[in-house]
Give the backbone structure.
Amino acid sequence: MAEGMMKKFYGHRAYVQSAGVRNDMEIDGFAIAACQEIGVELSRHRTRSFDEMRAWGDDLGQFDLVVALTPASQRQALEMTRSYHLDVEYWPIMDPAGLGEGREARLAHYRQVRDHIRQRMLTRFGPPTEPQD
């Protein structure tokens, strides 16, 4: 969700790459639905791991900032970037997977997470620089 929102709100202002401790081949359908409500398309998005990023030639030293959304990704980001001059920020974001009974309750948790990420972005990076639909 964070990568899709960042690209939608800030366009080419920053190079954004989503990565985590592990890669999940498919994005969660609830994340797709929650982001679609605000005009962020995730259906073709695929998450990747830090290891996969390195294997594909992404040099973490070229980034200015890593935003970690889980304690595990923060630990790995700090470990992998300790010899680089870049900032690692931790945004404690709840993982909505498996929360809630029934579709509407689950979707409500994903909306809450989406809105939390959006607020953190607006606080950190300012108003969107790209026109919003």
